[in-house]
């Protein structure tokens, strides 16, 4: 792009560096200015040089580079957009002052290069000199303020990342500790299940894991809402949870219907509640077990969602697959904690667990997943009933 001196003057007149200059003074600066059209990768100012030119970016883009003294590699500090200026620091330094950074175009650009060495030689003590230095000082102060803000934001980001790493480390240590104790005690747990029954053993394991997760969450320093422990928008959460659970309930009933078709020897109906009502009441054992299961649903969800899934979602390195990886790992770990009961049962907990993990990631609320879990538990134990199928198949 070709441009006359008057065109350069118009660009300079609108720039903050030239504020308060008279037409005569602006003409002196324009006479020392040059319009340049440069390609990407062109060095406009080189670190270590001692020239006194200032660059005003008219179009395109450039970047400020700082060289690593040990490796010699250049690192990008900031990107310059049209209207930005660079090189003013050399005007405030002494004659031997060297450039502190390199300015390089990162795309085809148009720039105005002003040679202030010529201006200083002929106008070293006049009013224009004072005006230019005042304008330069004001602009440098604004740039310093902007740089400080970027630095503070960068420090905060690094602190947040460090805090997340510490929290992830604490989470990992606690999970490994619990799993190690569980694995080492597996044989003893199996013997205790035979002697006392699986219910009391499961309750003890849940209590230990829930306590450990709660302590970990409190010590993390993050708000409880980050782990889904919030009642915000609870009506919306419960309503959505109910609607999202309906397909799961229908799938359970449909699955039992298919099993009964394939195994006609099983004396049962799709909805066992119909037979129980017709027979005069519920099975007391299943009633007690079902109620206990519903009461412990929130605790199970607290362990798998708030304790494990939340930690993985928030503290794993950012990626598009982080949420799904958190859902998968949290359910695998929770299923493994049921291995002392029955391997088949442990594997079966994965499928609804994936659904509740997705629901939790969608709502970021433990309330929704817990409510859905309770609905499914009541549906399985009271309405559909799986006891006869379970004993017949497993």
Automatic annotation (TrEMBL):
The chain crosses the membrane at residues 166-185, 197-217, 237-259, 323-351, 371-393. PROSITE patterns: CNMP_BINDING_3 (PS50042). Residues 17-115 form the Cyclic nucleotide-binding domain. InterPro entries: cNMP-bd_dom, cNMP-bd_dom_sf, Env_Response_Regulators, Rce1/LyrA-like_dom, RmlC-like_jellyroll. The lineage of its organism: Bacteria, Bacillati, Bacillota, Bacilli, Bacillales. Keywords: Activator, Membrane, Transmembrane, Transmembrane helix. This is Cyclic nucleotide-binding domain-containing protein. Pfam families: cNMP_binding, Rce1-like. Gene3D superfamilies: Jelly Rolls (2.60.120.10).
């Amino acid at each position: 792009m070709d441009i006359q001196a008057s065109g350069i003057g118009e660009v300079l007149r609108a720039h903050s560096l030239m504020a308060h200059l008279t037409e005569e003074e602006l003409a002196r600066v324009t006479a020392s200015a040059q319009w340049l059209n440069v390609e990407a990768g062109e060095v406009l100012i080189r670190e270590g040089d001692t020239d006194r030119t200032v660059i005003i970016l008219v179009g395109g883009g450039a970047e400020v580079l700082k060289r690593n003294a040990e490796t010699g590699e250049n690192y990008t500090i900031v990107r310059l957009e049209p209207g930005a200026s660079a090189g003013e620091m050399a005007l405030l330094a002494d004659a031997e002052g060297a450039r502190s950074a390199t300015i390089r175009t990162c795309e085809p650009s148009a720039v105005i290069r002003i040679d202030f060495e010529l201006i200083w030689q002929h106008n070293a003590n006049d009013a224009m000199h004072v005006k230019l230095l005042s304008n330069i000082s004001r602009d440098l102060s604004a740039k310093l303020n902007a740089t400080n803000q970027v630095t503070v934001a960068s420090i905060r980001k690094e602190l947040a990342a460090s805090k997340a790493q510490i929290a992830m480390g604490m989470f990992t240590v606690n999970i490994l500790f619990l799993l190690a104790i569980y694995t080492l005690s597996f044989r003893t747990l199996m013997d205790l299940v035979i002697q006392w029954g699986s219910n009391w053993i499961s309750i003890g394991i849940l209590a230990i894991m829930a306590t450990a997760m709660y302590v970990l969450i409190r010590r993390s320093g993050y708000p409880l809402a980050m782990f889904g422990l919030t009642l915000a928008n609870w009506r919306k959460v419960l309503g959505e949870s109910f609607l999202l659970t309906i397909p799961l309930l229908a799938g359970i009933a449909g699955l039992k219907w298919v099993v009964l078709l394939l195994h006609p020897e099983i004396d049962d109906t799709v909805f066992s509640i119909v037979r129980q009502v017709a027979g005069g009441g519920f099975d007391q054992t299943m009633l007690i077990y079902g109620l206990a299961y519903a009461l412990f649903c929130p605790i199970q969800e607290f362990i798998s969602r708030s304790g494990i899934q939340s930690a993985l979602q928030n503290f794993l390195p950012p990626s598009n697959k982080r949420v799904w990886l958190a859902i998968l790992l949290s359910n695998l770990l929770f299923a493994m904690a049921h291995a002392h009961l029955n391997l088949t049962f442990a594997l079966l907990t994965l499928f609804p667990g994936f659904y509740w993990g997705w629901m939790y990631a969608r709502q970021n609320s433990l309330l929704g997943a817990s409510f859905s879990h309770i609905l499914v538990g009541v549906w399985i134990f009271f309405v559909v009933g799986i006891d006869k199928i379970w004993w017949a198949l497993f």
